[in-house]
Design brief:
Elements lengths: L2 H12 L6 H5 L9 E11 L6 E7 L2 E6 L6 E6 L5 E6 L6 E7 L2 E6 L4 E6 L5 E6 L7 E3 L4 E4 L4 E5 L6 E6 L1 E2 L2 E2 L3 E7 L2 E6 L4 E5 L6 E6 L16 E7 L4 E6 L4 E8 L19
Parallel strand pairs: 1-19
Antiparallel strand pairs: 1-22, 2-3, 3-4, 4-5, 6-7, 7-8, 8-9, 10-11, 11-12, 12-13, 14-15, 16-17, 17-18, 18-19, 20-21, 21-22
Bound molecules: calcium ion (CA).
The site of calcium ion (CA) has 9 residues, from strand 2, strand 16 and strand 20.
């Protein structure tokens, strides 16, 4: 077998789909937190004007919530081409944030308006709105609870039908509060969170709030390649049917399908904890 073939086999052998890292790691608070690398499986086009705040994959389509005043939208698009096949603009006074699809509804947060929108997932018809107390950053769900981030180290749980708060989860990395929790994706018992202003995704136990693994995406996008300014890593979506994970960032030109690469045994963990959740 050629060397390239051997390398390919090796990479395939050690790469893992990123599922359930917390379930795999257990909740041993004394265990070192592993830092996973990544392997790019495939790239897809992404609208360079999309200030990504929410990303969801469902039934063959990518759904995206974008931000900024006057430019915030909800979109349904084809993954392979980036073609937008359905879009709904928010009024200029709303800064769109995270989205999640709960059964046949899409729920979209706004940054500082304390107002969420609930749409029919097929038509994007606005069904109703709801209020919440915190800022709105990311949102996902575990079917029974909506899970919301607000840029702090706390995740908030809401009832998916009444939108009433049902609890909180304080997220910590080696007992240090993890600030800047941003876009979210719940995958097989683990909450994955972009950490604002970093190249890392945290894998969080929904039971304890402990970070049980990091995924370091440093170098996945190379800003100097592009003729415009890109913003931070933000956006995680999971295709449960084909077990694919997609990530992107604000104003990034590409969406990356990735797999995790387990850390070497002697790799030391350097935590990004302590970052201040500055205003975006
Ligand atoms: Ca997401």
């Amino acid at each position: 077998m050629a060397v390239s073939g051997l390398c390919r086999v090796f990479v395939q052998a050690v790469s893992v789909a990123l599922l359930g890292l917390c379930a795999f790691a257990g909740d041993d608070c004394n265990a070192p937190v592993p830092v996973y690398g990544y392997k790019i499986v495939k790239t897809y086009p992404h609208d360079r004007d999309a200030f990504t705040q929410g990303l969801v994959f469902s039934k063959g389509f990518l759904y995206e919530g974008t931000g900024r005043y006057g430019k915030s939208e909800l979109r349904k698009q084809k993954l392979e081409t980036g073609e937008i096949i359905l879009r709904r603009k928010l009024k200029h006074r709303y800064f769109g944030e995270g989205i999640t699809m709960h059964r046949n509804r899409i729920i979209q947060l706004t940054w500082k308006s304390h107002k969420g929108f609930v749409y029919d997932s097929n038509s994007f018809e606005l069904l109703h709105t709801f209020a919440y107390a915190t800022q709105g950053w990311g949102i996902t769900h575990d079917d029974k609870r909506l899970i919301i981030s607000d840029g702090s180290s706390t995740l908030h749980f809401l009832d998916p039908n009444t939108f009433e708060p049902t609890g909180k989860l304080r997220v910590h990395d080696n007992n240090i509060p993890l600030l800047g929790l941003n876009e979210l994706e719940y995958v097989k018992g683990t909450i994955y969170a972009n950490i604002w202003g970093t190249d890392r995704i945290a894998a969080i136990s929904p039971k304890t709030g402990r970070v049980c693994a990091w995924i370091d995406l440093k170098g996945i996008v190379k800003p100097k390649r592009y003729g415009w300014t890109i913003d931070v890593l933000n956006g995680i979506a999971y295709d449960s049917k084909d077990d694919r994970l997609f990530i992107t960032g604000k104003l990034w030109p590409q969406i990356f399908e990735i797999k995790f690469i387990p850390p070497k045994q002697d790799q030391n963990h350097k935590s990004p904890s302590g970052l201040n959740a500055r205003r975006r």
